[in-house]
Amino acid sequence: MTLATRRRSPQRPAPPHSGAPHPGGPHPRGPRPGGRPIRLGLRANLAQFGLLVAVNALVGGLLGQERTVLPLLADRTFHLSAHTGALTYILAFGATKAVTNLFAGALSDRYGRKPVLVAGWLVALPIPAMLAWGPTWGWIVAANVLLGVNQGLTWFTTVIMKIDLAGPARRGLAMGLNEAAGYLAVAVTATATGAIAAHWGLRPAPFLLGAAYAALGLGLAAAAVRETREHARAEAAAHPAAAGGQPRLGTARIARTTSLGDRALSAASWAGMVNNLNDALAWGLFPLLYAAHGLDLGRIGILAALYPAVWGAGQLLTGWWSDRVGRKHLITAGMLIQAAALGLVAVGTTFPVWVAAQALLGAGTALVYPTLLAVIGDVAHPAWRARAVGVYRLWRDGGFAVGALVAGVLADAYGLTTAVWAVAALTAAAGATVAVRMYETRPRAAAEAPVG
């Protein structure tokens, strides 16, 4: 059955490779070069999976060094009064990361996952120094171009490598662990850099953490991480009729299918873009909104960290939960909860109200983030899954660029509160789109499969 035929079916469509258990049970095996069998599953690949979780924590930490400090740096050090101009670093980051995701998928299929991961960490090396000592705002924007490349290559490969290792039965859990590690590290680093900045200033001290993350990440990627592309090939070999018998789709066809053609993939792409649109708002404008109401740098740092902390910790549960109850309803609920949280930020004027709003925003995002990645992994054939993830992440991380433009323009024209309300409305609309358009993609055997 082709993807097009599946969409025309009046019954709930089944994800392409969920119709039957893998040959030989939940752990397909295949030949590894050198004779060792390849096994899928978390337990079978625990050491390597755990290492990739640690690597992605470093990826998140590199991003987290900016969350508290950079909006205030734009305002206090570089004196950028227009919100649109101040958010140029998020625009540069988001646009670069979005495009890099697309190329990362094709490169990881062609050359392997590990070379792409190592390349991403090499790009990261100059970023902390540029942030710490860059003499003009142009240096900060250039550092965020490099950060977009770094995050597009490294976060992408840690995602796809975990999907490769985990197999279909525990894909949601795998994505939950991956995203939890990354965003808990964002939260910890945002808190740490806020505290460092309160004592030693906005530059250079907070960015020394980023330098340590980059050096350690490069060392682990080069010396300890192993290639996982053969795991994807083993899974593909176990499913010769998967994805409607279309394991050899071209990149242009994959882009169309992910963006528009398949109802689940396209709904996930739209929801992912809006999710990161509101994350751009939280990253770039929330610290300015809190400062305008008189909060000191320490409390701004707590609020900046609370959202990704709840988001990160929550994914430890929500990824696993989506393996049990399905993807669609968690995504719908998460988008609507985020919309409500943004409304609470807009009406709030005190620290306790914003604490509640940030926690609610983190909970909603936790429901959405790993689950959207699991949807892509459910539907895409292993032979073209990396490129499908790249297209999805092109749309999702494009939300940073769209969010920076939309939020900045609206904040300059109508004020910070209006910008928050507008993004809340877009987030609610995305939740409604998922409810109407997406079909359930969770593999039917996942709930009954043993932990592997």
How would you characterize this protein structure?
This protein has helices spanning 3-8, 46-64, 69-76, 83-86, 88-111, 113-124, 127-133, 137-166, 171-200, 208-223, 229-237, 242-245, 251-261, 263-284, 286-292, 297-325, 328-347, 351-379, 385-414, 416-437, and strands at 29-31, 37-39. It has 452 residues and is an all-alpha fold. It has one domain (45-231, 249-437): Up-down Bundle (Growth Hormone, Chain: A), CATH 1.20.1250. A two-stranded antiparallel ribbon has the order 1-2. A hairpin with a 5-residue loop joins strand 1 (29-31) and strand 2. Helix 2 (46-64) runs antiparallel to helix 10 (208-223), helix 5 (88-111) packs parallel to helix 8 (137-166) and helix 5 runs antiparallel to helix 19 (385-414). The protein starts with a helix and ends in a 15-residue tail after the last helix.
